[in-house]
Amino acid sequence: MRAEGPGTAEGPGLYVYAVVRAGTPLPRKSGGVGSPPAPLRTVGAGPVAAVASAAPVPLRPRRRDLLAHQDLLTQLAVSGPVLPMRFGMVAPDEDALRAQLAAAEAGHLAALDRVAGHVEMNVKALPAHDSLAALVAGEATVRRLREAARRRPGYEADVRLGEAVASALARRAGEAGRRALRDLAPMARATAGGPEVPGCALNVSFLVAQADSDRFRATAERFAAAHRDHVDLRIAGPLPCYSFVGTGTGTGTGAGPGGRSAPAPVGGG
């Protein structure tokens, strides 16, 4: 399976959305990527199957296609566990896809069992840029440099103050993010660190029982409100379990057997 980049055209193939258990029904009113939306089909290999459609050429991450990809995953999850592929996974043909499914059958079955009845919740901790007054009140170094800049204004004084503010904002966000992780982790079956995001102090996904997703979000939102002077805590989900589809808990990439991940759909970690 290959991951096509934006604007490339590697010829015909099968666009792969997810791996599911054999017999999982396709949503009746959902189409695939492309314009017009490509008809969906399943490609089976024993107890597992891939949900696929004809790959559009060229394949580009248009917003409509990103949303169609994610909407299909959400609808599939109504009928059972789903191992989601990230946007852009293309298999050469059905035979190659079946071979890849068969080779990874044991890992797929274990992952499907692991995510059954669960969703992914993502939490990002960013500096609280709207809380500069609280920052100045709580940081002696920032107060000292601000007073120095007022007494002797100049470029170097402004640079020192700006660096101190940025450093303090990042430190406070990191500290609050780690506290949030400690508070939220007991509510999850597993956690997985996400990729580095510029300006983000923490990016973590949580594998949460579907029945507990509302409670998880409420707990995270209460934490965000209580610590808004220290961190801008952003909660996304419930989402398909992109971060937990590998053969080891918390190590998956959402790329699929033998594949590499392309840009994540809208709202991912």
Question: Could you characterize what this model shows?
Answer:
With 269 residues, this protein is an alpha+beta fold. It has two domains: 2-116, no CATH class; 119-244. Helices cover 37% and strands 22% of the residues. The protein is built from seven helices and ten strands. It has helices at 63-77, 94-103, 105-115, 132-138, 140-151, 155-184, 213-226, and strands at residues 2-3, 14-21, 41-45, 48-54, 82-84, 89-91, 118-127, 190-193, 202-209, 231-239. Strands 1, 2, 3, 4, 5 and 6 form a six-stranded antiparallel β-sheet that branches. Helix 5 (140-151) runs antiparallel to helix 6. The longest helix has 30 residues, at 155-184. The radius of gyration is 22 Å and the shape is elongated. 39% of the residues are buried. The model is unreliable at 4-10 and 247-269 (pLDDT under 50).
Radius of gyration: 22 Å
Mean pLDDT: 86
> Stretches where pLDDT falls below 50 for ≥5 residues?
4-10, 247-269
Oligomeric category: single chain
Would you count the extended β strands for me? 10
